[in-house]
Amino acid sequence: MAKRSEKTFYITTPIYYVNDIPHIGHAYTTIIADTISRFKKLTGYDVFFLTGTDEHGQKVEKAAKEKGLTPIELADQMVVRYKDLWKALNIANDSFIRTTQSFHEKGVQKIFQKLKDKGDIYKGIYKGWYCDSTEHFLAEDVPLEEGGYKICPECNTKAFIVSEECYFFKLSAYQKPLLDFYGKNPAFVRPQSRMNEVISFVKQELKDLSITRTTVEWGIPVPDDSKHTIYVWFDALHNYLTGIGYDWDLSHFQKYWPATVHLIGKDILRFHAIFWPAFLLASDFPLPQTVFGHGWWLKDKTKMSKSKGNVLDPHIILKTFGADPLRYFLLREIPIGLDGNFSHEGFIHRVNSDLANDLGNLVQRTLTMIQSFFNGKIEETDKEGKEDKKLRLEFETTKKKTLKLYEDYAINKALEEIWSYINSVNKYLAVNEPWKLSKDKSKRKKLGRILYQAAAALRTIAFFLFPVMPESSEKIWNFLGEEKPIGEESFRELKFENLKLGQIIKKPEPLFPRIALKDFLKEEETRAAPARKEEKMEYISFDEFKKMDLRVGEILNAEKVEGTTKLLKLEVDIGVEKRTMVAGVADVYSPEDLTGKKVTVIVNLKPAVIRGIESQGMLLAAEIDDKATISFFDKDVPTGAKVR
Ligand code: MSP
User: Fold this and answer.
1) Which residues form ligand 1's pocket by a CB distance below 6 Å?
2) How far is Cα 470 from Cα 464, in angstroms, rounded to an integer?
């Protein structure tokens, strides 16, 4: 394959599952990719930035069924949500791929066939522990229970051994080539700590990978064997090839492949750093340069996820603040490799202090003075003095450092540098007090110099900030009378004195709203409430409710389940008989707390085997931060009484 030209830069995000709407975690990856892509364009690269959606597989099939939709109907709805969000966040991706597009499906089938012909894909029997209720094979590392079976960690029920005919990818054959590749490319995975993690995983035995399913209908059919569908990860990873033209626009494909950087969350590192290069080695494509695994945004110290109910909807912040404060906060708060905890306090603090105070005030003050003292014109000035030179030299060092830090994807550090420069400009104004000079006619040129310095610095600040805050930067640029877009100036050619004398500035509008924390929280609460209601409230009919047999149960005995920290085995009298139940409450209640207590029990729930004990019912409890609070009665009630 032809080698791609040095000046191209191909960056990707993961393609997002369409089983659910996007949250701040998804937005984070895409914002980083957009920032890097904009930066690279400013340094003269021919950039291609690809994002999209991952639409096949069991997750999507199941989510669609629950919503009463076909998978493609659900995908069509979710794609709109993703695209709208990217627009609101000012994401300038060059293309958006959907894995249900036919060019992608054909490309994946072609590669599948190629590897099959070559012998890297072969048919065999997959044997594994399968859970009926969650409909999936358990991971290899789920431990065997004493009775010689496994328990599904997702639903706590017993799994069974199932054999299924499927196609395997010969991953085992790529152990050595992968290790050789990592050895020659030690910066393939970043941050470095994650490279070590990957190497030690590959050094253990690499088993062949099952890459088809007969249990999932919603997937790309295996060529000439359509009772099998291709496993969603084999399908999805190839979007990085098909999305730039593999099998449909060869010259475009050759121009950009191999990818310069696959930006991903650390949760999907193995897929990208092990399976993906192995697939590519097998099909003879050059390997990507870097896989960058970023950290997670946490809420209340846990990863945001719909099932935990702790996801943050970016739309609420976007409606109040616009895109730039959110982009700035997410990138400024943590280095890309580490986790961060999202707090509204932290967000408001950054917006008010860094954006409204430091930057917003500087823009307002400088431009308003030029309006009032020079009628909006960048005027003739005194020669450069000592303080002025200092500021210009600070621009030079900020430029060098920022360039290097952005190159290195150390965006938070680049922002720190830019802010230290902003603060120097603020200090320069405070020391020189231009507002005092305005009354003295003989100081007019001196006043011109001071305001020129501030405005010229602002122009460079807008430029530096453009990759992170494109909208506000472009506004500052326009306030300063620049007519061409920022993107037409290049990073290397940026000079302090590029602000021309005689230029006419515009009247500035406020850039960042200053909002008090309590008002923001109130706003967030009122906006989130109807959304929450709409999302979570799935009504059931009274007849459906009546199917639940709820009764007052008396706990006769309670004891800890050995080898667990959370489980209690309970003997519960439900009036007509005694039942054994296993409850995950031992971290909150001791056996003595519960003996003799009356609780609400659902008695017609299908029994489940938990840790080898058949649990024949479930008691009701509130779950707060993963801890149970059992619902007791406030008066004595007869054992066995119906609850409705
Ligand atoms: N569809 C797969 C990716 C296939 S790529 C060939 C997938 N999709 S996903 O929608 O579940 O998540 C995609 C990405 O969203 C994660 O890898 C990560 O980049 C981002 N995030 C999701 N939740 C996140 C946080 N809470 N914090 C930061 N990013 C996270 O996996």
Assistant:
1) 14-17, 25-26, 28-29, 54, 236-237, 239, 264-265, 267-268, 296-297, 303-304
2) 10
